[in-house]
Amino acid sequence: MNTPALRHLMGAYFHQDFFVSYGGVWETLEQFTRDAPEEAELLPREIGLVLATHGTEAEVEAFLNELGCEYLAQPDDGGYRGWLTEIARRVRAAAGQP
């Protein structure tokens, strides 16, 4: 699956020390959007593709793990599907997209 922006976000930002490096989940996303705004614009589409092609929570988790993601989605996040949906929403909102 071709998701270069999501791969970059998960592998380079949501690494095992992301909380120490960036201060939290949303701070990590904000840093990514500052560092790679062109890639950030691709995230909502790429996330939509992942959610459409990975039907279960376990499949989404396995895919993110393959990308190098070290974040453990919490129940309050709505699992990995909810977390990715929120990432897409925040990126769209920051770009002024509906």
Topology, pairings included?
Elements (H helix, E strand, L loop, with lengths): L3 H10 L4 H5 L2 H11 L1 H17 L3 H10 L12 H16 L4
Helix pairs in contact: 1-4, 3-4, 4-6
Classification by helices and strands: mainly alpha
Helix content: over 70%
General form: globular
Which whole number gives the mean pLDDT? 95
Q: How far apart, in Å, are the first and last alpha carbons?
A: 25 Å
Please describe the biggest sheet, giving its number of strands, its sense, and whether it closes into a barrel. none
Count of alpha/pi helices: 6
What is the chain-wise order of helices and strands? HHHHHH
Parts with pLDDT < 50 across at least 5 consecutive residues: none
The proportion of residues in beta strands is under 5%
Number of strands: 0
Radius of gyration: 12 Å
What does this structure look like?
This protein has 98 residues and is mainly α. The chain has one domain. It has 6 helices and no strands. Helix 3 crosses helix 4 and helix 4 packs antiparallel against helix 6. The longest helix is centred in the middle third of the chain and has 17 residues. It is globular, with a radius of gyration of 12 Å. It starts with a helix and ends with a helix.
